[in-house]
Amino acid sequence: MSVLLETNAGNLVIDLLVDSAPTESRTFIALCLSKFYHYSPFVNVRKDVAVDSGNPCFPDPIAAPQPNKYIDYTPSSRLNPEKVGQVLFASNGDKFSPEFSISLGPVTDIRGHVFGAIGEGFTTLEYISDCVLDETGRPLKDIRILHTFVLDDPFSLLLEAPPSPYPTQKQIDSFRLLLDESALEDIKAESHALTLEVLGDLPSAKIQPSEKVLFICKLNPVTTEDDLRLIFQRFGDITSVEIIRDRATGHSLCYGFIEFTSKSAVERAYRKMEGAIIDDRKVHVDFSQSTKRKRNRNEFT
Description:
By secondary structure, the chain is an alpha+beta fold. It has helices at about 20-35, 120-130, 170-175, 180-190, 190-200, 225-230, 265-275, 290-295, and strands at about 1-5, 10-15, 45, 50-55, 70, 85-90, 95-105, 115-120, 145-150, 215, 240-245, 250-260, 275-280, 280, 285.
């Protein structure tokens, strides 16, 4: 019951409160599956208090996928003032918005209803809390959501996830770096690869995401790296297998990466293993679209 947010500042794993906040959890999963949050910036940073995100149209008002910005629901989970990393939808009485907040410290004055908690990524939260801000609380160097992965969907929404979208021109126009205007205009004129470099998803526009890495999620917690290697080696030679684990407990977070020696092996594995049953779980596989996996490994170890 968790979702992975990949950002250019590090990864965040949100554990959803599906029992105490089912409506909010279901809505958040649906929004993540539809790639709604891609390129949403983190804004309104209040050090050791909270940060907001979830508006891909920023700085314009959110264009919600629902007829109205706010979604009807029955208020459920309440804020725990002692807990860091709580995830809340913005609320307006008995309605909530797709925009969300994450608590950065023990707080009592955030309006909203909790639907999840950060399970991994506290180093990323510390980075966000400590970054240099402008007068509105926006980081001077953008921090944005690059990809969303649903690691476990207890609602079995079975939505057909679209491919990760390219940023729109309006989103590109809103990107911000510690550069002067002329340099920023030059960057905006570059290709999509350079746009991803600006966001931090690529260390260089000349370095492409690996075509030899397969992302896998919705794993059974008992599944091991050796199990995956045994199952996937029939598609080609494997360089490495990594299941991401909770750094405190060592328990599987039910997703990982399989690196092959060839692109063709990845393609064969993708065609054959999407929706396959491994240890009584129907797994999801996808092409890994980021170079950040190895650079962010310390986030999970």
